[in-house]
Amino acid sequence: MKKYLLFIAVINVLISCKQSADKTTASRVLYDSAYVPAFFEDPNRIEKIKAAFAVIDSLYKKYATDNHFPAISFGVVVDGQLLYKNSYGYTDVEKKIPATASSLFRIASMSKSFTTMAILKLRDEGKLSLDDPAYLYIPELRNLKYPTADAPVITIRHLMTHGAGFPEDNPWGDRQLADTDKDLMAFIGKQISFSNPPGIAFEYSNLGFALQGKIITKVSGMRYQDYIKKNILEPLGMKTTTYEYSDVAPDKLAHGYRWLNEKWNEEVLLHDTKDGSWGAMGSMISSIDEFAGYMAFHMSAWPPNNAKDDGPIKRSSVREMHHPWRMNAFDANFIFPDGRTCAITTAYCYGLGWMKDCDGKTYISHSGGLPGFGSQWRFMPEYGIGVVAFANRTYSPFTTVNIRVLDTLIKLAGLQPREIQPSKILEQRKNELLKILPDWNKAEQSGIFAENFFPDYPIDSLKKEAKDLYAKAGKIIAIKALKPENQLRGTFIIEGEKINMEVYFTLSPENPATIQEYHIQEVPKQ
Question: Do 360 and 504 share a structural domain?
Answer without folding.
Answer: no
